[in-house]
Amino acid sequence: MRSDVAEVLRFAVYDVTGFHTTYPDRPYPKAVFAIKAAWEVKEQVRVLLRTGSLEDAELAKERLEELVQASKQPETTKLWRTICRWWKEIEVLIVTGATTGKVEANNTAIKHIKRTARGYRNPNNYTSVILLRSAARTTA
């Protein structure tokens, strides 16, 4: 994580809470550190998913584990357990770059087309509307 980004986040939260203007001589409130730690974990997950090799992914995973342990938050711990549980699938994503994004987009489009075609009593008209909308969508 870039330290300048972390500093910006730290001061942004610090100023939003109004703590700086109200109590300039006091240390940061604990919430600032909790937010910063969660943000660092989130950024490390992004780094992990952007890696191009399994070796880099292992290093990023180790760094993520360090950040999760340092944050001591139940949300980040739960995220870590989820990543560990899905690690084989994450490795496949890193190696192949394959996602289900296109399939999910098509399924959503089909749901929208079917939703707008509801109300047709004639099954042939219903089918025609679905096919015309999907054809118009693919040519656009």
Summarize this structure briefly:
With 140 residues, this protein is mostly helical. It contains 8 helices and no strands.
Question: Could you characterize the architecture of this molecule?
Answer:
The protein has 140 residues and is mostly helical. It has 2 domains: 3-96, no CATH class; 101-139. It is built from 8 helices and no strands. The protein starts with a helix and ends with a helix.
Q: What are the defining features of this structure?
A:
single chain; 140 residues; mainly alpha; 0% strand
Kindly give the count of domains: 2
Order of helices and strands: HHHHHHHH
Number of helices: 8
Give Rg in angstroms: 24 Å
Quickly give the structural class: mainly alpha
What separation lies between the terminal Cα atoms?
Answer: 41 Å
Q: What number is the mean pLDDT?
A: 80
What spatial form do the alpha-carbon principal axes imply?
A: elongated
Uncertain stretches of 5 or more adjacent residues: none
Largest sheet: none
As a percent range, the share of helical residues equals: over 70%
Q: How many individual β-strands?
A: 0
